[in-house]
TrEMBL record, chains A, B:
The keyword Methyltransferase does not apply. It holds the Pfam family LacI. CDD domains: HTH_LacI, PBP1_LacI_sugar_binding-like. GO terms for molecular function: DNA-binding transcription factor activity; transcription cis-regulatory region binding. The lineage of its organism: Bacteria, Pseudomonadati, Bacteroidota, Flavobacteriia, Flavobacteriales. This is LacI family transcriptional regulator. Keywords: DNA-binding, Transcription, Transcription regulation. Residues 4-58 form the HTH lacI-type domain. InterPro entries: HTH_LacI (IPR000843), Peripla_BP/Lac1_sug-bd_dom (IPR001761).
DNA sequence: CTGAAAGCGCTTACAG
DNA sequence: CTGAAAGCGCTTACAG
């Protein structure tokens, strides 16, 4: 099937390409009757504008890029969902790339998106990204950028985040309020800001409530996953620390711990209370169901695109745009892994 | 920052645009020294070809579309992962769209991808899609199509599937082999082929092993999710059917059932064995861990792109391409929810 | 080995 | 109200 062009419509109707183009775009300087004839013919031929040509002329692709550390991940897939739903409403398509938490790959993906001339980029930083040269490069091409969840304070762009420290504080406080006296923390890698912030929130909550902070109760979960949670829980048992509560950095790590306790016949929450973080689907499906902190992924995705859209629109109009930082609310969800 | 063009390089070097273009693409009819000069200057200026112009000339976008029912879904996100990893290797970008299991939306997404002139499309059919006019439309534009998991037999295109009937047969057989005598089935909606096939596999396994098929032991889980599994399990208990095994259409439904039994003090697998389907991450994290059938999402994504790539290449060369159907292996994974 | 020229299919400033 | 023309930035068949 030969693709239909403006030229073909023009020839069929015996008018110029210019007029056809303007008629289809409802320019005011085209007569009503001509518009009707053109639109009818376009419909009849099932005309679809050649986006390649439109892109070249308008210097816009109506496409945005999204870089996330991992696709197979409840939180990020929720973000993706929020983004593509919102983008669709505004007629934008979304190209998704993965960084696999690698700095090198993230750099490569940014470069791909620059080459592709996307109209904007949304991203959550890879754990191993320290340098931000690639983001500066992106911005030097005048491509609007929005960061979410894992951000860099060094980059001047819009950001959508939660208050990790506060959220972790409240999670820990929930354990304290329910009677825990000796609370361990399964923390994430040393690098990422949100791992640091959650740790600090935990520490602060202890201090504010008269519980001594003990660094030997902090276990490292490098990958914040199920296996890490299992390992940390087994180590905790070996250490015989007599802990009565755990605040885990993610639901996955918390789930690993619960699995270990279930196997060993240790009762959750009677013997030990467990608090997760994120409110992944998982947390309501395990036994006992997991108390956690809700992290609004879908909302974060939606807001990310909305902000990006605003910036793209401002850029198009040549209006200056002031980057914004939006902090989304989180809240503790009590289930059966805490008293 | 003004974008660098071939013209600029040509002017800087005092040669023609043609030669610059050819030098950068390593045409054999350009002198070595010119190539070197051009490449050096391109690098110095950080030249990036304008893809919009390249697309227009080559009529290729190096972009493919992907339509899935839901992004937030372990299986589909695994497929997405396989696809974008493979696409990246070949220099393709992936646009992801969601159908939300709706026929109308699926149609719209197909239309978007046609307009966008993607080089190819991969998709898993929405549950509510019966009509295939939109897929015919896609093919009439000569855009290669690969379907995976949920396919339509009416469309002549490459397909990547599993043998649902066989997989369900083996899952049921596993229950029988472990001693179950009265096995219920939590089935999916009546429409989708894979829901039908899994039901048929269940039925066939009973018949082949001398167990009577009893339609009152088949419970409908319209959305094949956690809530459906809970509902079905509660109904099953109410019905007092004295069942000693359940084959659930998905891990989610199985997980809902396990949660109900855990709450009611019914021992899994001692009182009742449960078999899931898909091997989502979830299934190893719950207590007891869930026996299931592994459904290779990542592999399916990889293969989907590979086949699509072959077809796109054939099309470009003008070589005829014969659609293939690939059936991926599945296997039973025994965990603690069965004896 | 180099380059002038046509053309991909649009959009839009401008002339009439 | 209509249309000729320029131009977006490439690629490539062709001439020299």
């Amino acid at each position: 099937m030969r693709e239909v062009t403006l030229k073909q419509i023009a020839e069929n109707l015996g008018i110029s390409i210019t007029t056809v183009s303007k008629a289809l775009k409802n320019y005011s300087d085209v007569s009503k009757s001509t518009k009707e004839r053109v639109k009818e013919e376009a419909k009849r031929l099932n005309y679809k504008p050649n986006v390649f040509a439109v892109n070249l002329r308008t210097k816009e692709s109506k496409t945005v890029g999204l870089i996330i550390p991992e696709v197979v991940h409840h939180f990020f897939s929720s973000v993706v969902n929020g983004i593509i739903e919102q983008a669709e409403k505004k007629g934008y398509l979304v190209i998704i790339l993965q960084s696999n938490e690698s700095y090198k790959l993230e750099k490569k993906q940014i470069d791909l998106l620059i080459r592709k001339r996307v109209d904007g980029v949304m991203m959550s930083l890879a754990n191993k990204s320290i340098d931000i040269a690639h983001l500066k490069e992106l911005q030097s091409h005048d491509i609007p950028l929005v960061m979410f969840d894992k951000i860099s304070k060094m980059v001047n762009c819009s950001k959508i985040i939660i208050n990790d420290r506060k959220a972790a504080y409240e999670a820990t406080k929930h354990l304290i309020d329910s009677g825990c006296k000796k609370i361990a923390h399964f923390r994430g890698a040393l690098q990422p800001q949100n791992s640091i912030d959650r740790f600090l929130g935990y520490k602060k909550a202890l201090e504010d409530h008269g519980l001594p902070y003990d660094s030997s109760l902090v276990y490292l979960c490098e990958n914040v996953d199920y296996e890490d949670g299992r390992r940390a829980a087994l180590q905790l048992l070996k250490d015989k620390k007599d802990v009565d509560g755990i605040f885990a950095i993610t639901d996955m790590a918390a789930t690993g711990a619960i699995a270990v306790f279930n196997e060993k016949g240790i009762k959750v929450p009677d013997d030990i209370s467990i608090m997760g973080f994120s409110n992944w689907f998982l947390s309501q499906a395990i036994t006992p169901s997991l108390s956690t902190v809700d992290q609004p992924g879908f909302e974060m995705g939606k807001k990310s695109f909305k902000l990006l859209y605003k910036e793209m629109k401002a850029k198009k109009k040549g209006v200056p745009f002031e980057p914004k930082t939006v902090v989304l609310d989180t809240y503790v969800i009590k289930r059966n892994s805490t008293k």
